[in-house]
Amino acid sequence: MTERSGSSQAKLLRQAVSSAIPEVPAAFDQVAPKFVYTPSRHARALDTNSMLVTGIRGAGKSFWWFALQEPRIRNVVLKSAPDVSCGFGQRPDASWPNRDELQQLLAMGSHPRQIWKAVVLRQIAPTANEFSSWQQWVGWVAGNPSPVATQLREFDAKLAREGRTHLVLFDALDRTADSREDQERLLWTSATGA
Radius of gyration (Cα) for the chain, nearest Å? Predict the structure, then answer.
């Protein structure tokens, strides 16, 4: 093999590898199984008992948010493949309140814990209550703690009987509000139970 042909082959190999990788991997809105690699540092992100996964921008949190929505990937990377729904993400979706809706709910005096409980309840029991707005969902959750607790317990018991789990994924929580103060109200107050 001449030096020139080796150089050509190396160039072709680099081009092949480069063309196989998306230009901006963190900007996925769909994840193909061929792009999935699970480094040991991501074990916490793949532990279904982890309540919160932290990491700097670009660490892979959004990648896993998208990837875990794909059943073929979920079945490979998780020990037991749960049912999955999404409670918040970077792209708008009717399944969760957007930034403006969250702002309105806070301005109306809704407690962040009730807001997020309404989001989770809507993910696991979407037809239990036919409300047309997040204001109605959150108002019902706040005003009906016993029926809410009953629905959550019944859903949990059903999953236990069937040997299943349900994972509600949240991503892009830095996009929940325009101001740092409102972000902290939505996220910190909810986490501490205050």
Answer: 21
Among candidates 89, 10, 55, 139, which has minimal Cα distance to 1?
10
Give the tokens for residue 49. Answer: 């008992």
**Residues contacting 125, CB < 8 A, separation 6+:** 151, 155
Largest CA distance in the chain: 79
Residue 179 clears pLDDT 80, i.e. is over it: yes
What is the DSSP secondary-structure string of 64-75? Answer: HHHHTTSHHHHH
Cα–Cα distance between 44 and 111 in angstroms, integer? 29
What's the pTM value of the predicted model, to 2 decimals? Answer: 0.76
pLDDT at residue 28 is higher than 60: no
Any idea what DSSP says for residue 101?
H
Three-class DSSP category at 87: strand
pLDDT at 90: 85
Q: Residues near 20 by Cβ (< 8 Å), separated by ≥ 6?
A: 34
129-168 burial, b at 16+ Cβ within 10 Å, e below that, comes to beeeebbebbbbbbeeeeebeebeeebeeeeeeeeebbbb
